[in-house]
Specification:
With about 950 residues, the chain is of the alpha/beta class. The protein has 36 helices and 26 strands. The strands form 6 sheets. The chain has an 8-stranded mixed sheet with strand order 4-3-5-2-6-7-1-8, with helices on both faces. Strands 10-9-17-14-11-13-12 form a 7-stranded mixed sheet, sandwiched between helices. The longest helix has about 35 residues. It is elongated and about 130 Å long. The two termini are about 55 Å apart.
Length: about 950
């Protein structure tokens, strides 16, 4: 092709190639043995140009390449890059990936459990860690150039989503933000918000899957394609599926029909029976065997129940299913024994290790939140290595780590959402099936839905073909957020910051722009104020006097105009038919004869009933033979009759001849009269005492003699005009549904009442609250303040703190939870009483838990398990009494440890203040007591 180019074109192409080779993207691309996709290149180029980016693309499409390019840019530019993820598992996985590429010396890890090389130029962390660093003003933020927010669509999460918005809003403007999201239907809206709060942000949306996804329905022994093969964009549902659904919905043969006189042919009945025999829901082992036979393993089967996931594995084992050969079995055992070597034998038995290992050796496993984190990690590793080929998982896997499969199976399209059984949404379907198709391994991915009674192919087609996964903000102010914001920015500025949240942006898009304009106006006001500074005195005061003088003059002028209009209207009301007048102004100015004085102001009884008018509107005949109805605007000054004329009874205003004769008589009668010129009255301002006082003060002011007075005055005029505009903008914001700021106001009011805040000052109690993050932050702070936990042992403190984090899966448990006796039981009772007091106070300040704000009642259901474990009891004893899966137990223990760490830092003794040091010491001891056994060697939780 280059031979066809002219020398100039070849030279330009060479220059272009040389320029591309000199970019950071060129050196970055050389690090990979595969080419980048167009959306990845577009996003990387935008980053290199200094723009922020929002990349919305399907699961498995390679969004993280853009995040890794931000790491590459940071290292090349000598800046720091923070790579944030929503869960510790993802953080650990990404840390491992980056260490392999850049070395352990350049990459750090910060999660609730681990702190590795925290001062490295590249640090992987959970989003909460970065939020806490921002509020604490951590020195680690110095030199930060890039922040990658992986899985940014987590901001929809109603429990944790606010953290993402807090980070986005509070990051320094100099930091470039890289937001990586699943494909969402309102990416452009989210990008608009990012552009508003973060500056120039480029939105890159890719709906292209690198591995095409094919949709199937498995019914009986046959797997059907969901869509017919066709050329058009609009895919048609497979008619075989439609026919089967229709047949199943039709009534089967009933012998009683014959008694009703309905004759059903034997042949029809036999054909129907044969057709129905082909439609059934295949069992779980049968599904795996079928997929294996079709070459569609490895597969993830999503079952919306933990117990059903475990049952599915057992069903496959009982069916004699084996997916691994002897060599793979040996490799599985070797890896499993290596990863679980630290777990004592007595704990292995409690954890169901041997049944779990048997399934792994056969290539079958479960994956859900109730499993021990170590077990989950092993399943993930074996699946990625191809040593586990069938995984039965809950939907939490779809939102977690990178674990792609060739096929994804959905048993049902209905799941329990915590309140009722509901259909899964198109967004959830997209997330679940997004795991199908491994890039670089599979040519195509497959989503298989099992036939169920009442199955609707059209409904499934709607789920598979709809891009509706909207990002909805879950942002709500909290007590901790309020004190941190007020401490950093003050109350007024904090309120403005909350107005820029994505939640407010979605509630009213214009408020974000207006809030930004208010902030810009305030900056402009500061500049104008500096420009109007006068060396002779306070020019702002001088400008205020000028403004008051001008306003008073304007007010008097308006009053004078109103008085003149009233006088003119009064004069018009005195006119009678036959009066000759001189119309002072307007199109019909000149001599005129009043035919009808018009309707007096405010009095009308026309066909529409009572009507209001501005004033009399006389009907006149002009000297130029025109009959017109005049208005008060034609009479800026009072008018008087110059003469009187008789109007003939035969006069017809519609007759040209009548108009001509009467106009001629008018000119004859009064054409020679010259109307008196209206004399202006003395201006009211001349006699106004207020104006006299202001003028005297102006002349006496030092700035009156300044040579640059008028120049300063121009800046002052701009200042007052901008201030007036700013006040109007603030009123507009107040008038909108600014629920976030109003909620913030109520929270600040309650915190002020409780002496956590005093105007813009954060009290010592408030500073303690600022260190406590969590749903029950205020309750924890009040317990520290009242000394509720003083004198408790480490195990008793762990039991009490568990009530701040634990939430039972079954909300209404009829049985009262078992509690430790003695001081711990009394302290737990006191915590509930304090919560009752806070609940009453929240009701008084109209802070509602239904809006996601406020303190829920502490749950005592984990107190006994936490107490037992912190007291050194064995895993078997603790789990049997808690009636809880090992994974849940470990997760709750880790959350208790996290809050204990906050309490150790926030308790009075932690800063040498007061006598509360026993709480801080015992919190640290409780952490050590809990972090043992399965809790200690579970690196992910």
């Amino acid at each position: 092709m280059t031979e066809d180019l002219s020398p100039a074109e070849r030279y330009a192409a060479a220059r272009k190639r040389a320029a591309e080779q000199a970019t950071a993207l060129a050196s970055f691309r050389e690090m990979y043995d595969f080419g980048l996709d167009p959306f990845q290149i577009e996003a990387c180029q935008a980053l290199e140009q200094g723009k922020g980016v929002l990349v919305a693309a399907p699961t498995g499409s390679g969004k993280t390449i853009v995040g890794e390019f931000a790491v590459h840019l940071a290292l090349q530019q000598g800046k720091k890059c923070f790579y944030t993820t929503p869960i510790k598992a993802l953080s650990n996985q990404k840390y491992g990936d980056l260490v392999k590429r850049y070395g352990a010396d350049k990459v750090g890890l910060l999660t609730g459990d681990n702190s590795v090389n925290a001062d490295a130029p590249v640090v992987v962390m959970t989003t909460e860690v970065l939020r806490n660093m921002l509020y604490a003003g951590s020195q680690t933020l110095l030199g930060l150039g890039y922040v990658v927010m992986d899985e940014v669509h987590y901001l929809s999460d109603r429990f944790r989503g606010a953290v993402w918005e807090e980070v986005i809003i509070h990051l320094q403007e100099s930091v470039t933000l890289v937001s990586l999201s699943a494909t969402v239907s309102n990416a452009e809206e989210f990008g608009d918000w990012l552009d508003t709060v973060r500056g120039d942000t480029q939105v890159i949306v890719s709906e292209h899957r690198p591995v095409p996804l094919f949709q199937h329905v498995l019914a009986g022994r046959r797997m059907y394609d969901l869509f017919e093969e066709g050329e058009g964009r609009k895919k048609a549902v497979n008619p075989d599926l439609t026919r089967m659904a229709r047949m199943e919905a039709s009534r089967s043969y009933n012998p009683r029909d014959r008694r009703k006189g309905k004759m059903v042919r034997e042949a029809d009945r036999e054909r129907e029976r044969r057709q129905r025999s082909r439609i059934w829901t295949p069992g779980r082992p049968e599904v795996i065997e079928r997929l294996d036979g079709e070459g569609l393993l490895p597969a993830i089967t999503f079952i919306f129940s933990r117990a059903a996931c475990e049952a599915a594995v057992q069903q496959c084992l009982y069916a004699g299913l084996r997916l691994n050969d002897d060599e793979a079995r040996a490799r599985v055992r070797e890896i499993v024994e290596e990863r679980t070597a630290a777990i004592p034998d007595e704990d292995l038995h409690v954890l169901g290790y041997y049944e779990w290992l048997e399934g792994l050796e056969r290539g079958i496993a479960a994956h859900h939140a109730g499993m021990l984190p170590t077990f989950k990690e092993v399943v993930e590793e074996l699946f990625v290595r191809g040593l586990v080929k069938a995984v039965f998982a809950t939907e939490t896997l779809a939102l977690g780590i990178n674990m792609p499969a060739r096929s994804v199976v959905l048993e049902k399209l209905v799941k329990w959402n915590g309140e009722q059984h509901a259909d899964i949404t198109p967004g959830e379907y997209t997330q679940l099936t997004g795991r199908a198709g491994r890039r670089g391994i599979d040519v195509e991915g497959h989503a298989v839905v099992l036939w169920q009674r009442g199955f609707s192919p059209e409904h499934l087609a709607g789920l598979a073909g709809t891009r509706t996964y909207p990002l909805r903000s879950s942002f709500k102010p909290s007590y901790n957020m309020a004190v941190n914001l007020v401490e950093q920015f003050g109350r007024h500025r904090s309120r403005e910051l909350l107005e820029t949240s994505f939640a407010q942006f979605q509630a009213d898009k214009s408020v974000v722009g207006i809030s930004r304009q208010v902030q810009r106006n305030e900056e402009g006001l500061e500049g104008y104020k500096a420009s109007m500074t006068c060396h002779l005195g306070d020019f702002e005061e001088y400008a205020r006097l000028r403004r008051e003088l001008k306003d008073r003059e304007t007010e008097l002028a308006k009053q004078g105009a109103a008085q003149r209009r009233a006088a003119a209207a009064a004069a018009l009301e005195k006119l009678k038919p036959g009066d000759v007048i001189h119309v002072p102004t307007g199109k019909f100015a000149g001599l005129a004869l009043v035919l009808d004085p018009g309707i007096p102001a405010g009095r009308s009884n026309g066909h529409r009933g009572f009507e209001q008018h501005d004033g009399p509107r006389p009907l006149v005949l002009t000297a130029e033979r025109q009959v017109k109805r005049l208005a008060s605007i034609d009479f800026p000054v009072p008018v008087e009759a110059l003469e009187r004329m008789r109007i003939p009874k035969s006069f017809n205003a519609r007759s040209p001849q009548s108009r001509r004769d009467l106009a001629s008589a008018l000119r004859t009668k009064a054409g020679h009269i010259v109307p008196d010129r209206h004399r202006k009255n003395r201006a009211a301002a001349a006699d106004d005492r207020e104006i006299s006082r202001l003028r005297t003060e102006l002349r006496a002011h030092p700035c009156h003699g300044c040579d640059e007075r008028e120049d300063h005055a121009r800046w002052a005029e701009r200042y007052y005009r901008l201030r007036r505009d700013t006040v109007q903008l603030e009123r507009r914001i107040e008038g909108r549904t600014n629920t976030i700021a109003r909620t913030f106001d109520r929270i600040v009011g309650l915190l002020t009442e409780m002496d956590y805040l005093r105007a813009d000052e954060v009290t010592r109690h408030g500073k303690r609250l600022a260190r406590l993050y969590g749903e029950l932050d205020l309750l924890a702070s009040e317990c520290l303040r009242d000394g509720v936990w003083e004198g408790l042992s480490p195990a008793e403190l762990a039991a009490c703190v568990s009530a701040l984090v634990f939430e039972a899966r079954a909300a209404d448990d009829a049985l009262a939870p078992k509690l430790p006796s003695g001081k711990a039981k009394a302290a737990l009772g006191e915590m509930v009483r304090i919560w009752g007091r806070l609940d009453a106070l929240e009701e008084e300040f109209k802070i509602s838990q239904t809006e996601g704000v406020g303190q829920r009642e502490p749950d005592l259901g984990f107190a006994w398990a936490a107490f037992q474990w912190a007291s050194g009891k064995g895993l078997d004893e603790v789990l049997s009494e808690a009636d809880m899966p090992a994974g849940d137990f470990v997760r709750w223990c880790k959350q208790v440890i996290d809050v204990l760490g906050q309490i150790a830092a926030a308790a009075p003794g932690a800063s040498g203040e007061g006598t509360g040091d026993t709480v801080a010491k015992n919190a640290r001891k409780a952490i050590d007591a809990l972090r043992r056994g399965v809790v200690a060697y579970s690196s992910v939780g």
